[in-house]
Design brief:
Order of helices and strands: EEEHEEHEHEEEEHHEH
Largest sheet: 7 strands, mixed
Number of strands: 11
Strand content: 15-25%
Radius of gyration: 18 Å
Helix content: 25-40%
Strand order of the largest sheet: 5-4-1-6-10-7-11
Number of helices: 6
Shape: globular
Bound molecules: cytidine-5'-triphosphate, magnesium ion
């Protein structure tokens, strides 16, 4: 084993995509003819040092099995949960026996198909020797407003020191499992893994990533993702 430890990946893909709307859950929307989740898995599988990618699926998901990547030896599925944190915790549980506490786990949203190999590498290199772990993130570029009542600005929030959290987020298997179990136990809602680690009093490392590693959240993000992936194909 290298000093950096072994690596596994987890892809929470059990969400319903309510803000996106659409006929199918957004992870199965097609972008340039290919399902979002397929782009996402290909980006992770390109990193050969990742031993296995565990995908957490919604109950009754019949679409995953039709993806080409579902047949890959390094890909396995597990049941998701009602919250993202439960989906991730289930995926970690399904690695029990294979993963060791000190191994690294990279958790990456199914809805982020534009992840670049260079960003994935930057995260692995930036966090690989860290005692806590970390995440890809981008400094906030716009002026931020806190909304008050009736759609008016209450005040301007200084953006200095504010970052947008992205994925992958990379933490030690044992630590992440404990952190998520604590949050789930206390019914503390966390929207990313870093927040669960922070709740333990630890401070994840921020690794600057690319702003175009977008999460498909709203309907207009689909066109953005298509443009980003098409531009990359032309490079
Ligand atoms: N996710 C999951 N299990 C859940 C909820 C979310 O695995 N119970 C996954 C989603 O599939 C997505 C990622 O977590 O890949 C990020 O979540 P988000 O963008 O919020 O996706 P959805 O929950 O599907 O969207 P929405 O909140 O608009 O319903
Ligand atoms: Mg959600």
């Amino acid at each position: 084993m290298s000093a950096e430890g072994r690596r596994w990946a987890v892809v929470p893909a059990a969400g319903r995509g309510e803000r996106f709307g659409g006929r199918v859950p957004k992870q199965y929307e097609r972008i340039l003819g290919r399902p979002v989740l397929s782009w996402t898995l290909a980006a992770l599988l390109a990193e050969r040092s990742i031993r296995r990618v565990v995908v957490a699926l919604a109950e009754g998901d019949r679409r995953f099995g039709r993806l080409g990547e579902a047949g890959e030896a390094r890909v396995q599925a597990c049941p998701g949960g009602a919250e993202r944190s439960i989906s991730v915790a289930n995926a970690l549980e399904s690695l029990a026996g294979a993963a060791r506490d000190e191994d690294w786990v990279l958790v990456h949203d199914a809805a982020r198909p534009c992840l670049r190999t260079t960003d994935l590498r930057a995260l692995i290199d930036g966090v690989g020797r860290d005692s806590v772990g970390g995440l890809l993130a981008v400094p906030v570029g716009e002026t931020l407003k806190r909304a008050g009542s009736n759609g008016r600005v209450d005040r301007t929030v200084p953006r200095d020191g504010l970052w947008r959290a992205m994925t992958p987020q990379m933490f030690r298997y044992g630590l992440l499992k404990r952190a998520l179990a604590l949050c789930i136990d206390r019914e503390r809602n966390v929207t990313d893994e870093a927040a669960a680690i922070e709740a333990m009093g630890l401070r994840p490392r921020l690794v600057r990533g690319r702003g175009d590693n977008i999460k498909i959240t709203h309907p207009e993000d689909r066109g953005l993702a298509a443009a980003i992936l098409a531009a990359r194909a032309r490079e």
